[in-house]
Amino acid sequence: MIALDLPRGARTVLCLGAHCDDLEIGCGGTVLTLSERDPELRFHWCVFSSDAERAAEARRAADLFLAAARHKTVEVLDYRGSYFPWVGAEIKDKFETLKVEVRPDLILTHYGADLHQDHRVLAELTWNTWRDHFILEYEIPKYDGGLGSPSVFVPLTADVRDRKIAHVLSCFPSQAARPWFTADTFAGLMRLRGVECNAPEGSAEAFYCRKLCLR
Hints:
Layout: E1 12-17, H1 22-37, E2 42-47, H2 52-65, E3 71-76, H3 88-101, E4 106-110, H4 117-129, E5 135-138, E6 152-156, H5 158-171, H6 183-197, E7 203-208
Parallel strand pairs: 1-2, 1-4, 2-3, 4-5
Antiparallel strand pairs: 5-7, 6-7
Helix pairs in contact: 1-5, 2-5, 3-4, 5-6
């Protein structure tokens, strides 16, 4: 297993999520790890779909996951969930605004082959907007399935794993009735990815990387 660090000089991380719990589930452990390892990293955290109840949940979650970061911007938008393919032009306009406002060294976004249409739209617009950037695509467990074989792993400490699960469950009570929204779902996926990368403490988050140039 080859280990690589963030590119030298990387200062800004752009986090893109379709719905109010996607970033936390897909890459929350990675965000905790990066922000606590280097509190001077700048995070721009953007959630695209919410309502009043879920927006409050999302902001509380962002506060917890970015607690160590000294520089952060959090946006919670209200594009209509499950309709992203049909409001794509409006979402594309927001991406063009982000392109001017943010100069990311690392972008965390949805998996391009995700079976949820909202997730796919964000992944497509990410690559359409930033064509020469370091982009990692995270995965979301769901009823639809669609989990694949990612090739990039971020090992997590047991403490980070446990805090990620606790934050997700405490911050999103609106999702508690969903049968998959449980601690063992999140722990199980992180354990499986930990096995695949021989993580020292047994758990990891995994990503897809389409392009990586080694120099």
